[in-house]
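Final report, Chapter 2: Outcomes

The project's central promise was a pipeline that accepts a single protein chain and returns its three-dimensional structure in a standardized token representation, suitable for archiving and comparison. That pipeline is now operational. To close this chapter, we reproduce one record exactly as it appears in the project archive, with the input sequence first and the structure output second.
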Amino acid sequence: MFNNLLKIRSNIFLTILIFILSTTSVYSKNGYGDLKMNSGVLEHFIEYITGVGIDKVGLRKGTPHYFAINNEGNASYYFFCPLKYSNNCDLSDWTKVRSECSKKSKDFGGKKCSIFANKRKIVWNSINYKFPKKPSRAEVIKTLKEYGFINELTAEMENVETFDKSNPDLIKKIKGLQKLLDQGALTQADFDKAKKKLLGK
């Protein structure tokens, strides 16, 4: 009787320990906290989730595997498994994705990266929102904006063509200002003032 109680207690303890270790591993793998993507990282995520980035090398069809980002929102890295390699892609490649992202982050003076998306699912802050297989650019921007991962300004810059479609030079200049803002070369006030001047407001 006493031995049976000990076995039951040991099994319960072991189960709890395994649960704690597994949840801690997932927690440290996936990102959490406040996050605002800059325009470059937003573009990178759109490439990842829509397959546009892979299309550049002729491997559009496939499955997004992991997308990593730092908490500063200015460094990212992803892995996309092409369809013809789908049976051979390593599901543990998130460690490489996070490592490569962290190297970029270090160059920008940022901290280590964490996983933002697992395949088509946003796992940051345990949101678990899953994108459809072929989301449009507008859908991706709208979703990220709704969850607070991009601000009004970044969303506005991604749709900057709405300012003046007939003036590509204006678009280029405004995107240049956004880049300077992301890099910290311009303050928000300076950016707003310069943008208004360009738009003639």
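Archive annotation: Residues 39-155 form one domain.
This record, like all others produced under the grant, will remain available to the consortium after the project formally closes.
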